[in-house]
């Protein structure tokens, strides 16, 4: 009880890194930045234009700050608008790169690929996706529902249906699975 | 009572709060059913099985539809900030929610206003938000898998997708990853690491491992981590101490999997059905040992 009283009296909680869930979109030139900002704001996204950190200075002196977890959906919107960004990187670590290592597990009749926190498992004889596991963002159960039971060739792409970085990780796992299953 | 906060993968599922009950392979909340495949519905179904066996009160659910856009999660976050302060729960599990540092902080403020501090468990997206916000140590239990543990251990990673490559997501690295997660204050008071071997760890390192019965196929089955989180949460809400609950839950989940004779194509609902029998076996075994 004493601890609880202490806990309740704590000073306001302050995030150690308030921008940990934000990312930067990097473009070729300022004109593209402004057009991209308009597109995203018109669709209700909370984005803002700012100067880039030193690691990202590539000529264009503006970047768009965006909600990092929605990277997959935001990049898709911009690609469909003909404005694909040069890079999408975390504010907390502009030099961080997406996971590049894959773990492969061979169950005999089934093959599993893991990318970061996402796993996809396929029946070797039919190429059917039999399970998707891992992940923590809400599009994971949605993607699993859409993909499980379908063949790798016929299943929708996580890149097209997903919205979050978990969806992006699943896309990478599926691509690696396709590479593993190709002759 | 146990409360579970999470999402279901249906865009039109409304925001609902109330007692959850099972109906076949669905969970029902205020008349709104959702299939038990994986995610929060699987967690709820497993928790309900445990509560029934132990004769405990039903589980309380806070659910909303969200397919990854985050709109449902944000509505639920807002609801929690308005209603949690007046609620009374022994244990709260936060699960599949769109990670959002700002909303996470506001929910934690609301929890701090509750008359009785609940035991706080975080898994999936809400665990990501807890780590990103620098408030991991406010939680009593995280239930990561090995990939998520590597994310907790990497102090720079904002999401598992950006975990640096040198953080090997391998089972034999678990003790080192646990130590690193605690060194950077990115872990809850206890960690139940789900994998081929389950680890229970605290600030002093690994305190228990559970590896039997072992079926490699369990790793491939979507939802087995959710069921483990549901089982441990229900045991804690029933009064089991966290360490004992975690060890029992890992055993129960594994025995339920064993009873289902799993292959990598098994669906989690087949395992959930076996939880009551698995509980009986594990509790009997535990009773005989003591």
Describe the structure.
Chain A has 183 residues and is α+β, with helices and mostly antiparallel strands. Chain A has 2 domains: 22-90, Hypothetical protein rpa1041 (Alpha-Beta Plaits, 2-Layer Sandwich), CATH 3.30.70; 102-181, 2-Layer Sandwich (Enolase-like, domain 1), CATH 3.30.390. Helix content of chain A is 33%, strand content 22%. Chain A is elongated. The relative contact order of chain A is 0.13. Chain B is of the alpha/beta class and 290 residues long. Chain B is 41% helix and 19% strand. Chain B has an 11-stranded mixed beta sheet. Chain B is globular, with a radius of gyration of 17 Å. The mean pLDDT of chain B is 94.
Record keyword descriptors for this entry.
heterodimer, A: 183 residues, alpha+beta, Enolase-like, domain 1, 2 domains, 4-stranded antiparallel beta sheet, 6 helices, B: alpha/beta, UDP-N-acetylmuramoyl-L-alanine:D-glutamate ligase
């Amino acid at each position: 009880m004493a601890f609880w009283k202490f806990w309740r009296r704590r000073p306001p909680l302050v995030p150690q890194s308030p921008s940990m869930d934000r990312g930067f979109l990097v473009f070729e030139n300022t004109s593209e930045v402004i057009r991209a900002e308009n597109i995203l704001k018109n669709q209700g996204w909370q984005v803002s234009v700012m100067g880039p950190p030193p690691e990202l200075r590539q000529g264009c002196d503006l970047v768009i700050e965006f909600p990092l977890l929605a990277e997959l959906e935001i990049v898709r919107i911009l690609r469909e608008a003909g404005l694909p960004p040069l890079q999408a990187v975390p504010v907390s670590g502009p030099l961080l790169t997406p996971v590049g290592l894959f773990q492969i597990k061979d169950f005999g009749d089934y093959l599993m690929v893991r990318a970061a926190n996402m796993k996809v498992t396929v029946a070797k004889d039919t190429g059917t996706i039999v399970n998707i596991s891992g992940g923590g963002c809400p599009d994971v159960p949605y993607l699993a529902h859409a993909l499980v039971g379908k063949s790798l060739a016929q299943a929708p792409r996580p890149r097209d249906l997903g919205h979050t970085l978990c969806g992006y990780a699943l896309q990478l796992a599926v691509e690696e699975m396709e590479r593993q299953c190709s002759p | 009572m146990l409360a579970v906060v999470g999402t279901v993968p249906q865009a039109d599922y409304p925001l609902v709060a109330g007692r959850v009950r099972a109906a076949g392979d669905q969970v029902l909340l205020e008349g709104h059913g959702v299939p038990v495949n994986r995610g929060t519905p699987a967690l709820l179904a497993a928790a309900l099985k445990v509560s029934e066996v132990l004769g405990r009160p039903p589980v309380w659910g806070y659910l909303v539809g969200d397919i990854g856009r985050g709109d449902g999660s944000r509505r639920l976050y807002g609801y929690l900030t308005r209603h949690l302060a007046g609620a009374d729960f022994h244990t709260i599990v936060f699960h599949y929610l769109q990670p959002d540092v700002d909303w996470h902080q506001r929910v934690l403020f609301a929890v701090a206003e509750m008359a009785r501090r609940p035991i706080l468990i975080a898994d999936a997206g809400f665990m990501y938000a807890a780590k990103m916000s620098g408030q991991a140590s406010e939680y009593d239990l995280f239930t990561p898998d090995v990939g998520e543990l590597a994310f907790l251990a990497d102090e720079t990673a904002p999401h598992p997708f950006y975990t640096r490559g040198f953080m090997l997501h391998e089972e034999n690295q678990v003790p080192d990853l646990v130590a690193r997660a605690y060194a950077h204050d990115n872990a809850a008071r206890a960690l139940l690491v789900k994998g081929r071997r389950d680890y229970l760890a605290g600030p002093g390192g690994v305190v228990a491992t559970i590896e039997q019965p072992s079926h490699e196929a369990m790793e491939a089955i979507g939802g087995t981590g959710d069921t483990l989180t549901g089982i441990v949460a229900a045991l804690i809400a029933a009064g089991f101490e966290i360490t004992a609950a975690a060890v029992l839950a890992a055993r129960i989940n594994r025995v339920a999997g064993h009873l289902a004779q799993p292959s990598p194509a098994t669906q989690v609902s087949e395992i959930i059905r076996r939880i009551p029998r698995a509980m009986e076996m594990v509790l009997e075994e535990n009773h005989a040992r003591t």
